[in-house]
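Re: that chain you flagged

S.,

Sorry for the slow reply, it's been a week of failed gels. I finally had a moment to sit down with the sequence you sent. For the record, here it is as I used it:
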Amino acid sequence: MKLRDIFTSKTAAVCLAASLMMGTGTVFADEAPSVDPQPRTQSQPENIETAFNIDISDPHFSYGVVGGVGGLFMLLSLYGLTRKSQGGGLRCAMALAVTGALLNPAILIEDRPLLPTEVAVIVDRSASQTLDGRDVMTQNMQESLLKQLGRIEGVKIHVFDIANDAAGGTNLFGSVKNATADIPPAQLGAVFVLTDGQVHDTMMRLPLGDTPLHAFVSGRENEQDRRIVLEEAPAFGVVGEDFRIKFRVVDEGVAPTQTKDIKVTVSADDTEIATQIVTAGQTTEMVFKMPHGGKNMIEVHAEMLDGELTETNNRIVLSVEGIRERMNVLLMSGAPQTGNRMFRDILKSDPAVDLAPVNILRPDNKTDETPLGQLSVTGLSVEKLFAEKLENFALVIFDRWHKQGLLPDRYYENIASYVEKGGAVLVVNDVLETTNRGIHTTPMARILPVMPDGSLSQKFYKALPTEIGQKHPVTRNLVENEQKTPLWGSWLTQIGAEKVHGEVIMEGSGGKPLVVLGRKGEGRVAEILSPDLHLWARGFEGGGPYQEMIKNISHWLLKEPALEEEALRIAEKDGDLVITQQTLKDVSAPVTLVAPSGKTETVTLAQEAPGLWTARMKPGEKGLYRAEQGERHSFIYAGTPDLKEWGVVRSTTELLRPAVTESGGYMARMEKGSASEIPEIRMQGPGAKMAGDGWLGIRKSEAGSLQKVERIPLFSGLPGLSVLLLLYAMWAKENGFKLPGRKTEHITKKEGAPLQDGPSL
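Prediction finished late last night. Pasting the structure tokens below so you have them in one place:
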């Protein structure tokens, strides 16, 4: 059998016909829940894009089988061509058609509605945006921009407001990344940012690709501001010792020739403690005394610069722990008694107290020949105590002390001067104060808050807080029961006296003064007009809060802020701002609350307890809050101090410029935020320029959502019929059938000669 007989048009026709019979009809696919196989119409909606593709993803046999069959047919056809066999070209076309039919090719017609171009508008709502009307300017620009974008067909707008980051500062680039994370990159046409330019994460690279970044910057171009930068400050200091800080005052936007000397003031708990003239840009060291033990709120404030943006960054507030290395207390006991041990036990229980007791060992009603210099127990001589070492004591206590010839008047004069210069004295009187031997007959009388009237009562009575005492922090919390009725034991002795100055916080028999607190010069003094405090210590009739009272009086004398009778405080509790006023007055004045941005709010306080007025609110910003009430003020940082946000506050275009330039975007300063400040907005194709003189661009989205697929197999219907007709014609020609309109030429075979009809297959 000849090779030609193996690959005849008859065989090929059978193969191709079989493959055509396996062809599929028209297929419709739709992503919608219900498939609608409706015939296509000539007109399509303008927002639908139609695409045509050839699909061979569903062959009748595997690609390996189709490739093998097609390759075999092609080799045989090519062999016939090389031998110049009749109909070789048609056989090649037939081989290709058979291979194509086995691949089951089809035309895919895809309908894709074009997805909208999405635009992100990032609005900076950080604290620095509230300065100098930037927030109003930004709001106007946002409204104008949204109106213009809303007029562009096929644009979907996303607006994102960003505030200060929890870690501090304005992390604009991170916010852009998060805001655009859910927008497909192919649909993101542009990112607009409305900000003052103070961005603190510019090192982050924006994943925008070909999407332009357009920036509108609020604020004036030639802004001025002064800020103070802390360079060194210890976390604690020793009370009464030098405390050193280093800082630098920076004037921005000010020419060096215009810089003047700057006054810097240091205050501690409402009290100015140091001032210094400094030069802008130079590191300065200030030295001052640590005011008191415990928490000290130290404010360093540089005077305001004319025309500057805000005074908020002109001050820094330090919370410094005041530590007493050893607090020296001098205890002067006038006669042996059970009360001596009470004071020693209370004072020695405090590890920070270094007690120096002076005890007289002979009662007044006893006489012997012991020299006076040997009747006291102390490690120091009287001369050294009251002439040289007195200023080394933080507190001096006179317990039932009276004139005994031990101290000359000049020593009492030294004690009075010691108080006026800032010292502290507690006097516990006894019955001798009704005689001319009392301590009130010495030069100390000029600092004492009462003057005895010579009367003496010795009948049991209850010590009670006065109306002032119920408001005073020294005695307000001594009563612990819910009815606020003292359940204390009785006292016996009451020394009659009249108040000279100060406040009576407890009263005794007949409503007479019992405990009196007073100020004299820079120091403080307190008097207890009875020697019976020891009855509470012994538990007589249930006793009383003697330890709390002595500690509170001592700490008030030592100027502890928590026991000040007139104070304004602000604190942060459970995420709220709590303003507290301690006062002996019957009413509370309104408080002005200054936010970190400089916004002010008037706050009315409500009475929580006698002498205690409070208000509670949520902080609207993060940073330094200042509460002001007359001459009193207090500070607190709400949250972590945001030194980034309130460090440099001048608006700028320089931080954003590299990112805007890299993206091919547009940047300009706002003036009022009006529509006239927004350039022409154009829709640009991918790869086109995105900004120019007087215009900015949005990259038009070419992304679509597959809605409908129509699959038309090429070897079924009319295409398949055409191939069959072609094969039929080839078959007819090969078998000698006459075609219409053509003559058949007969070739006569000569005797003994082969028929010359080309190479034989």
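What I noticed first: Residues 1-10, 18-45, 739-761 have pLDDT under 50 and may be disordered.

Talk soon,
D.
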